[in-house]
């Protein structure tokens, strides 16, 4: 049974964000990185979330908080508003909307 990717692309998960989350491929564009990170939140893939943050963020220190948020957060969809490449290959910008419901907030 095929499963649509939570990122809203309309593609099947195995052909969309799963290769990035599994580490088989690197997201080639800022938009695909954003979609894969959204999907990682939906699918509770904390290792990918930490690995895909910029090193200056020291994301590993937030592991417990991220994991705890999985219990109380329901993601309601992702809309990519705008995507733009930066000056360098390792820079890009994504404007997005990702509504969520947080239980107990």
Automatic annotation (TrEMBL):
Residues 29-100 form the YchJ-like middle NTF2-like domain. It comes from the Bacteria. This is SEC-C motif. The lineage of its organism: Bacteria, Pseudomonadati, Pseudomonadota, Gammaproteobacteria, Enterobacterales.
């Amino acid at each position: 049974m095929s499963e649509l990717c939570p990122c809203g692309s309309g593609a099947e998960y195995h052909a969309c964000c799963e290769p990035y989350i599994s580490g088989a491929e690197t997201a080639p564009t800022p938009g695909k990185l954003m979609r894969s990170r959204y999907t990682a939140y939906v699918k509770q893939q904390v290792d990918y979330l930490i690995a895909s943050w910029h090193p200056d963020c020291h994301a590993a220190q937030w592991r417990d908080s991220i994991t705890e948020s999985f219990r109380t957060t329901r993601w309601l969809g992702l809309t990519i508003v705008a995507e733009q490449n930066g000056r360098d290959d390792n820079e890009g910008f994504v404007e997005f909307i990702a509504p969520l419901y947080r239980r107990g907030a």
